[in-house]
Amino acid sequence: MTPSFCVLICWLALPLQGLEILDPEEVEYIRSNTTASVGGSVTFDCGPTVPTIFIWGFTKPGTENNVALAYNYGQGPKLQAQSSSMGHIRVPENTSALVIEELQKEAEGMYTCQALYDTDDGARITFYFTRLDVEDD
């Protein structure tokens, strides 16, 4: 079991009382890359449907420190203060997408959405990894 998976499960344990994960080893990983320009905007998707619970994280190049940017565990999306140096970050209503407008060079790095879907067949966890390269204008 990866450390990221353990952190996700431990962090979500309280709001997930009663949610049964039938096979926690069945985790899907989806990877992509995108490029955007300083001052522009970018949208990161966290799956084709809104997950029951999601956490957006960011890892700056050259580090292993994953910092939470936004999350939603059933109470509506919440943004973290440390995201302000990247540009204007938001999670549009009724989505799990992460949008960054007025993009700054500091936004370059790896974005991770940890998504938990509560399905009729039990919980399903998917990690969406997107590498963002920010070009100067």
From TrEMBL:
Residues that span the membrane, as ranges: none
PROSITE patterns: IG_LIKE
SMART domains: IG
Keyword line: Signal
InterPro entries per UniProt: Ig-like_dom (IPR007110), Ig-like_dom_sf (IPR036179), Ig-like_fold (IPR013783), Ig_sub (IPR003599), Ig_V-set (IPR013106)
Residues covered by the Ig-like domain: 24-126
Signal sequence coordinates: 1-18
Gene3D superfamilies to which the protein is assigned, alphabetical: Immunoglobulins (2.60.40.10)
Name this protein carries in UniProt: Uncharacterized protein LOC118341977
Species the sequence originates in: Xyrichtys novacula (Pearly razorfish)
Organism placement in taxonomy: Eukaryota, Metazoa, Chordata, Craniata, Vertebrata
